[in-house]
Design a protein that fits this description.
By secondary structure, the protein is of the alpha/beta class. Helix content is 50%, strand content 11%. A hairpin with a 5-residue loop joins β3 and β4 (183-185).
Amino acid sequence: MIYLNQNLYSQKLSQVRIAGIYLFGPQRALQSDFINKLSLEAIKNAFREKARRYHPDLQPHEPPDQVKRNQQWFIKVKDSYEVLKDFLACQTIVPAPATVRQKKIIAVGGAKGGIGKSTFTANLGVFLAAQGHRTVMVDLDLGGANLHLYLGKTYVKNSINDYFTRTVPNLTDLMIPTRFGPHLIGGDSSKLGSANISFWSKMKLIKSLRDMDADYVIMDLGSNTSFNMLDFFLAADAHLVVTTCEPAAYLEAYNFIKVGLLRRLNRLFGEESADAGKKNLALQELLHEATTSPNGSKAKNIPDLLQRVKEKHPDYLPALKQAVGNYQPFLIVNKVTDLEDVAPIVKRIQDVSKKMLAIRVRYLGTLPYLEEIKRSTLDLVPEVARNSRGPLAQRMAALSRVL
């Protein structure tokens, strides 16, 4: 759901609040977290309770005046039910026509710690596994691996480091089942130099992930913009960037999106690229100077870079435009307490990305701040496993339809 017009968005929220008062009463509907905690099941239960109280056919012995008042209230209750039901439906993006599912690699990134990235990743993996998808979670936070904790494991015997050191020959030898559904390839940041892997070790790992026999491979990335993290991020089929409504978080989210694009352009003709054989040293030098040079030749923005390529290397402009256009990361806003805070942040990131980076950032949705999620991280039980019909599970259902 994306509301770029803030006035329309505020009006819609006001309608939802009013409808909530009719169905749930003012004490509950006016709570700050009411909208985030809405669920279809709760709406249906409230409607049934109010229908039993006000439906005119169920109160045949009431005085005529009371029957009339009940009839008017029932109309309002029924209209409120439709408003709330439609609001929840708008949270769900309609899926594309059914096709034969191909394996999908999902990368979850975000350049700031404490935004709930690993919690989100774990719950997404558990949800997908519960839908019958063969799901493998990979902890690639090489400097701070902790995904196993969010999947109920306090310790992993073998980690991704054993693959890099060739202690285990195959990546699949590291997969361990979790009691919540997905398989896990854990990380271990306790070893000195865990985050320092060679370029070719990285490329070997990416190939192994692509060859893995699974419906979904989900990579939980570190909260930094190192080349390793960016290359893992870019290797995915779906690029998810997590933020919160805090300024430091969404500014870092934009920065992560930006440096991801710059890394993509700088590796356009790298050894791992499908266009490796189309190298043009002069163009590579231009890309490098325009995106990284500190001496004044750095491009002001991506449209400026495209103009330079058009003037100096016009034959390569289509390939560069394609590389830019195909980079369309998803944005997820996590730990939301007030939905009215979301639209301006999303619009700001989308507008700046369009203007400065010439890319489309797709808004995937919000995830509410819930005390239940906070408790689940302490209990080592993913919230969607604890409550398969709760608000978080419903949001995961909406998000996963797009992936």
